[in-house]
Write a structure and sequence with these properties.
Length: about 475
């Protein structure tokens, strides 16, 4: 793993940690597990457990899983809440808040029945807490500042301890300075594997969390008071073309766990497959209650995990279906100039602004091929070069790359799909077929038709009364 390690306290022998009761709520001079950290937005390989029950670990898009240590009965983790620098995509970095060097924080993975002890050190300039979204636990471990615990002051470490009662897909995020801390990127996913590894088994298990940011062009810190008008729509604080592809082997059973902590829902669509939603942040969906989909809407504050058999080799688009969410920074006051002859107007404006260039007369796709003079640290509105040209998207978009003959757990990008001969849509060069004339319309006034049809120039009955 490309994860550097740093120690906050010199590691005393594990035996220095005494019983849970003596540690709860306050950290003594006992040893705290090291807090691994990374400054890389690169996907780390899945972290297979070195001890305890076996499971197929998840892969976090542009992220990683937090290593832990076993201490007696307890699995110990150490999260550090802190300011971080996140590359949103090549060409744009953001000053966010997150955990252990990145936003989102590392994924926490454990097993149903595990006892987990999670140390949280606050290196933010203000207090925080961590809430374990959807995890069944004692009320006092639920992480709601003021309600279930005092806030964690800057510079202090708190410890959370609970037993994992059920397997599933969950999240963690602060319940402190509610609007600011999540708008700054503080969140992560929490995956609890079944104790029986054969249950809900898949070959590849991806996870990511959806969020949104509002950056003034050229700036590095998102606005925190925006309610709806975000301009950077991210998966794990990344936008296309910076989001990792989902690399899968033909025939694999694939699960994708999608969490949403943005301010709106996202209908997520996978091309080329039918899937079933098998898990939410409330647990596993009984098999008899599952239905097929190719798009699943993920509401705010929830998780939807779907499963599909990757039986079709190819490059399959995987994206949010809200069209603004597959764009990078854009103003939302853009006028529609489609069909407007701008030549005369452009000549007039050029007398004042010599470089003026009319845009949008034939749509906006011109913009994808053009590098405008952008402010620093600002991405183009649409990007991503595919094997056939520009893809004209940004934001919440990536590609599921299904290939034959990959090794298990090989997530390296295999490049673009090589289509079999004759299986790519292509230009038709023969004569165009004659347009077919529609059949004569049926009589406009038949039995059962109670309204007169008003012809152009004729006034309707309603108007006559005025
Ligand atoms: Cu969306």
């Amino acid at each position: 793993m490309q994860v550097s390690r740093r120690r906050f306290l010199s590691a005393a022998p594990a035996a220095a940690l005494i019983g849970a009761a003596a540690v709860s709520g306050r950290v003594q001079a006992a040893s705290i597990p090291e807090a691994p950290t990374t400054d890389s937005p690169a996907m780390q390989p899945p972290l297979f457990p070195k001890s305890g029950p076996e499971y197929q670990p998840v892969v976090t898009l542009n992220g990683w899983t937090l290593p832990w240590r076993q201490n007696g009965d307890w699995k110990e983790f150490h999260l550090v809440a802190e300011p971080v620098v996140r590359e949103i995509a090549p060409g744009m970095k953001a000053n966010l808040w997150g955990y252990n060097g990145q936003s989102p924080g590392p994924t926490i993975e454990a097993v149903e029945g595990d006892k987990v002890r999670i140390f949280v050190t606050n290196k933010l300039p203000e207090h925080t807490t961590v809430h374990w979204h959807g995890v069944l636990l004692p009320s006092g471990m639920d992480g709601v500042g003021g309600l279930t615990q005092p806030h964690i002051p800057p510079g202090k470490t708190f410890v959370y301890e609970f037993e994992l009662k059920s397997s599933g897909s969950h999240m963690y995020h602060p319940h402190a300075d509610e609007m600011v801390q999540m708008a700054m990127g503080m969140m992560g996913t929490f995956v609890i594997h079944p104790r029986d590894a054969a249950k809900h088994r898949v070959d590849r298990d991806f996870v990511f969390i959806m969020n949104g940011f509002d950056f003034n062009p050229g700036t590095f810190v998102p606005k925190v008071s925006t309610m709806l008008d975000f301009n950077i729509w991210t998966w794990n604080s990344r936008v296309f073309p910076g989001i990792d592809p989902l690399v899968v082997r033909k025939g694999d059973r694939v699960r994708v766990r999608i969490a949403n902590l943005s301010m709106t829902s996202h209908p997520i669509h996978l091309h080329g497959h039918h899937f079933h939603v098998t898990c939410t942040d409330g647990g596993w969906v009984p098999e008899t209650a599952r239905w097929p989909e190719s798009t699943i809407d993920v509401p705010v504050g929830s998780i939807r995990a779907f499963e599909a058999v990757a039986d079709a080799p190819g490059d399959w688009a995987f994206h949010c279906h809200k069209t603004h969410h597959v764009m990078n920074p854009m103003g939302h006051n853009t006028k529609n100039f489609i069909g407007v002859q701008q030549r005369d107007l452009a000549n007039a404006i050029r007398r004042l602004v010599p470089d003026y260039m009319p845009m949008g007369e034939r749509g906006m796709s011109d913009m994808s091929a053009m590098e405008h003079d952008k402010p620093q640290n600002t991405l183009p509105m649409m990007g991503g070069q595919g094997p056939f040209g520009p893809m004209e998207m940004g934001g919440m978009f990536t590609v599921m790359k299904t290939r034959e003959g990959l090794q298990p757990n090989d997530y390296n990008d295999p490049g673009w799909y090589q289509h079999p001969a004759g299986q790519v849509a292509h230009q038709h060069d023969g004569p165009s077929p004659e347009p077919v004339k529609p059949a004569a319309p049926p009589s406009q006034k038949g039995p059962g038709m109670e309204m007169d049809v008003i012809k152009p120039g004729q006034r309707g009955n309603q108007q006559r009364h005025h």
